[in-house]
Each structure stands twice: as C-alpha cells, then as structure tokens.
Specification:
about 100 residues; mainly alpha; 4 helices; elongated
C-alpha cells in the first residue's frame, strides 16, 4: 500500500513541476507579445522625451494608457505606483 501511495504522490509532484514550467512559458510568451505595445506606451508617457520615466509622468499619463497598464497589472491606481517601484531597480526615481 505504501508503494502505491508513493507512486501516486511522485506522479502528482512531477505533474506539478510540469504545470509550473508550462505556466512560466505561457507568461513569457504573453510578455513577449505585450512588449512592443508597452514600449510604445512608455515612449508616449515620457513627456520630456529624455528616455526616462518618472513616477509623476506615469501618473500624469493619458487615461487610456493608465487603464491599459492597470489592465496588464490586473489592478487599480496603486498598482501603477507599485509597477513603477518594481521597474525603478536603482531607486533613482526614474525608469530608463
């Protein structure tokens, strides 16, 4: 009985690993599809055209772009600030 249980558990664990790998590949595929549009959005948001975004530029961006970014993030306004903070890896207040 223990052997049967062990085989079932091992199979479930292996399937879990495969599921996580498939999910990661799917997310990567979706991100690659979104990348050109996101680049366009960030270029549009860059008001002074210095190829750097500030949090202020992000929050002052056109509503259509903010809504699209929120849709990508699957959340509301606070998530835009969270997105900026995630992208601002050096805590400079700018994303380049």
């Amino acid at each position: 009985m223990n052997l049967v249980t062990a085989v079932i558990v091992e199979g479930a664990l292996e399937q879990g690993v495969k599921d996580r790998e498939a999910k990661a590949r799917y997310k990567q595929h979706i991100f690659k599809q979104m990348l050109p549009k996101m680049r366009w959005m960030f270029k549009t948001i860059d008001l002074n055209e210095d190829n750097r975004l500030t949090k202020k530029e992000l929050l002052l961006s056109p509503e259509k772009i903010r809504l699209e970014l929120e849709d990508y993030m699957h959340a509301g306004d606070e998530s835009l600030e969270e997105l900026f903070d995630l992208l601002d890896v050096d805590d400079s207040g700018e994303v380049d």
